[in-house]
Amino acid sequence: MTNNDKSSHEHSETQTPYCSSCQVDYSEEATPVRKDRRIVLIGVTSVLLVIGLVLELVLDLQLAAEMVYMVTAAIAGFSIAKAGLKALLFRRQLNINFLVTIASVGSFLIGHGEEGAAVIFLFYVAEFLEDHSSDRAKNSIAALLKLAPDVAVVRRNGTEMTLHVHDVKIDDIIIIRPGERVPLDGTVMSGASTLNQAPITGESKPVNKAIGDEVYAGTINNEGYLEVIVTRLSDETVLSKIVKLVAESQKARSPTEKFIDKFARYYTPLVLVLAVIVASVPTLVFGLPAEEWIYRALVLLVVSCPCAMVISTPVAMVSGITSGARNGVLIKGSTYVEEVSRVKMFAFDKTGTLTEGKLAVTDVIPIDASPEDVLTVAASLELMSEHPIAKAIVTMAQEKGITFKQVDNFSAVRGKGVVGSIDEKQFFVGNRTLSEDLRFPISTSIENRAQELENKGNTVIFVGDETGVIGLVALGDRVRPDSRDTVSELRKMGIRTAMLTGDNQRTAQAIAEQTGVDEYRAELLPQDKVTMIQSLSNPSGSVAMVGDGVNDAPALAKASVGIAMGAIGSDVALETADIVLMNDDVSKIPYLIKLSKKTMRIVKQNTITSIVLKLSLAVLVFPGVITLWLAVALGDMGLTLAVIANAMRLSSVSTGIPEISETPSEASSGK
């Protein structure tokens, strides 16, 4: 690294407290377990607790043991008591920290110092393990931001230099060698390669990149040498927007989460009142031993703490959202995870969603010439036109290796086609109207063939010479390879499908038949799609709309869940939809539904398990079966870790694409 490079890098480190390339503070990343000071506290307090037990049970030194228990409780319980008192004094809330503090202090007051110390120690361990386990899901943000390198190799004034990504400017030329990750979004200006875009889009196959193609930060260059001109700064890349979206989505709360939080606010004071009743009524009314029932009241306080129930839903939602992000499906909050699980109807836009969104030649039909001659004439004339139909015909000719002919006397007839001379012979390429204008009658057999092609949703172009029509070229918007399988899989899930399009009735019918959707509506304006979403919602309930995020914005907003396609190339898609598919891949939709349903299933499992176990332990409090330390170990620490571990199973819901954790160069070097 040169001195200039070094100073630039140091400047970035001193001036930038967070990584602007992803707009996420590095401090949000969890501290590694081995560096967490709580490990030391746990070690110290565990040794003290053992010493206290030896003093009491082996050496029969009660006073010394009680003092050691107090020190143990003070060390482990300081932060717990502080959090509980702050919640009570400043927010007027009774939380689990306050309840555990009361239970511990109460144990010391009635002569159960060993249990008071054990309760606060076990709860401290439970809090540590809970935080560490929860961070495994939340750390996906840190994992995402690590996809893009911190530095880039930049060529300026003919010299290569290594700069921090913060210091790279628009229009800078960056060098990306084989095995390296792309540091910033840009356009290829030299070289060719294949890129692994799985970290961003979840695509299983490498994507070819050549001059003029876009590349994205965080993707991996497989084998070629690329020179890329930077088009987005470090805080504007597609990856940075993904990270921001995931971070924001984890803060949004679903109806289920809001309900549980509200329930916990009323539940905790109710438990405290019940504990007071258990401690006082048996003694004052029935004359039972006060110490015994105060102890049981303290056990009831600990057993009834709603910690596991409160954390069970958010940890599952976060796990679901981050699992989706790793597979190229961005969900803008747990509300939409929950909503997708209720969807009974999926409405699809046609162009760019069920189809590829671009014209391509589907058939070349010769009449009085060979297929090669028909395509040669059509492509040679269309080479001089900028119309989308012309480009599709020229592309097909290039793929077939056709040699273009010299065209003279070329003219374009607006809205009809083109005319020109090849080898002093006049030809035309256009629609029926152009053929009729040139007084070339279309025979019944040719018309019937054209009708057959049009009934399949194709646009038909007539190719002719001075004698008449010599062939037909059919063009269509190709159906995506996965569209029919996706619709079929949705049907197996009991979900109906509809296609909404502004295209004509005949084209819409042809695409509907090819994809297998249950129903379709054609010739719709954007406002008509909104009306259709509303009408589909009446019998079906929740309706999801899948579109391109631009023309379909009103319908996406109206639907219960709006899902945008191809967000990797569209800022509008990221802003408009509730869920975005980073690549043009409708096959991710069944995965999204499976993820949503499994997430909600785990939420229910966690909630029901928490309630049933808490109630069971609470019942066992009254006959004195449950002790304080067992209440914490089983009812709090054990249950909390169980619901977190259950939520972590969501990482197994995948699209079958292996996760990329290292670059080829890292793998080969053994890093």
What does this protein structure show overall?
This protein folds into four domains: 3-23 and 149-236, Calcium-transporting ATPase, cytoplasmic transduction domain A (Distorted Sandwich), CATH 2.70.150.10; 33-139 and 252-318 and 598-652, no CATH class; 331-342 and 493-593, Rossmann fold (3-Layer(aba) Sandwich); 356-479, Calcium-transporting ATPase, cytoplasmic domain N (3-Layer(aba) Sandwich), CATH 3.40.1110. A seven-stranded mixed beta sheet has the order 10-22-21-20-11-18-19, with helices on both faces. The chain is built from 25 helices and 22 strands. Helix 19 links the parallel strand 18 and strand 19. The protein has 671 residues and is an alpha+beta fold.
Shape, per Cα inertia axes: elongated
Spatial sequence of strands, sheet with the most strands = 10-22-21-20-11-18-19
Average pLDDT reading: 80
Query: What is the count of DSSP helices, taking H or I runs of 4+ residues?
Result: 25
Q: Count up the domains.
A: 4
Structural class: alpha+beta
**Beta-strand level of the residues, as a percent range?**
15-25%
Largest sheet: 7 strands, mixed
Structural Rg: 34 Å
